[in-house]
Amino acid sequence: MKSAVLVFPGINRERDMARTLKLVSGVEPAMVWHADTQLPAGTDLVVVPGGFSYGDYLRCGAIAARAPIMDAVRAHAAKGGLVLGVCNGFQILCESGLLPGVLMRNSKLKFICHDVHLRVERSDTPFTRGYNAGQVIRVPVAHGEGNYVADEDTIKAIESEGRVIFRYCSADGTLGDPYNVNGAINAIAGIVNERGNVAGMMPHPENHVESIIGSTDGRGLFAGLVQQFGKAA
Ligand SMILES: NC(=O)CC[C@H](N)C(=O)O
């Protein structure tokens, strides 16, 4: 699997993401600077990583969404290419119109940084095929603006088309306010676009891929993607 990780000024999770992609796929990803206008030929997967692009000025992801490289990301998605946005990456994909909705301030107006449980809502997407539907995984969150919001019609469409891929839940998969760490509508932690080739999620699966740091629950996402493209470039 050939992947490309976008790099914006202020991003700080790109090395974690690159390390995980190398670990799981066996192939070093290309690091692509925001001012570039092209992705490397043959890119299978574009990853927009987490961090604080442009210092979170205006709104998280708002400036990065207008960076030159984003036209190439749009073209890649339009061809059916896979795009994954994690945390700030999810915010950037929403701000760029590649995913619907927006990420607002967390309902308690505090930055949160701890492990959460997620219920995998479906396993028939390229991003979740490494899991079973209904499986509960534990991965960290680290954000101040993770409260997913969209207008009523958009939420109706996302829900009726089964485009929620992850929801915040308890360790046994129960949904409820105490587990909805940022107040997101319907406890939405991750979604896919209509075509199913662009995904965004607030939690960080790339940080839980090795038992030495306490959990490998994030690995399934990357392992599932690799299954699709194979391990070699
Ligand atoms: N870890 C991240 O990507 C953080 C995203 C963004 N800076 C926020 O605080 O919401």
Automatic annotation (TrEMBL):
Coiled coil regions, renumbered to chain: none
Gene Ontology CC: cytoplasm
GO molecular function: ATP binding; glutaminase activity; phosphoribosylformylglycinamidine synthase activity
Localization annotation: Cytoplasm
Keyword Hydrolase applies: yes
One Pfam family linked to the record: GATase_5
Recorded metabolic or biological pathway in which this protein acts: Purine metabolism; IMP biosynthesis via de novo pathway; 5-amino-1-(5-phospho-D-ribosyl)imidazole from N(2)-formyl-N(1)-(5-phospho-D-ribosyl)glycinamide: step 1/2
Presence of the UniProt keyword Cytoplasm in the record: yes
Annotated Gene3D superfamilies: 3.40.50.880
Entry keyword set: ATP-binding, Cytoplasm, Glutamine amidotransferase, Hydrolase, Ligase, Nucleotide-binding, Purine biosynthesis
Residues at the catalytic site: 87 (nucleophile), 204, 206
Catalytic activity as recorded in UniProt: N(2)-formyl-N(1)-(5-phospho-beta-D-ribosyl)glycinamide + L-glutamine + ATP + H2O = 2-formamido-N(1)-(5-O-phospho-beta-D-ribosyl)acetamidine + L-glutamate + ADP + phosphate + H(+); L-glutamine + H2O = L-glutamate + NH4(+)
BP GO annotations: 'de novo' IMP biosynthetic process
EC number annotated for this UniProt entry: 6.3.5.3, 3.5.1.2
Its job: Part of the phosphoribosylformylglycinamidine synthase complex involved in the purines biosynthetic pathway. Catalyzes the ATP-dependent conversion of formylglycinamide ribonucleotide (FGAR) and glutamine to yield formylglycinamidine ribonucleotide (FGAM) and glutamate. The FGAM synthase complex is composed of three subunits. PurQ produces an ammonia molecule by converting glutamine to glutamate. PurL transfers the ammonia molecule to FGAR to form FGAM in an ATP-dependent manner.
Subunit field text: Part of the FGAM synthase complex composed of 1 PurL, 1 PurQ and 2 PurS subunits.
Protein name (Swiss-Prot/TrEMBL): Phosphoribosylformylglycinamidine synthase subunit PurQ
Organism the protein comes from: Pseudorhodoplanes sinuspersici
Gene (name only): purQ
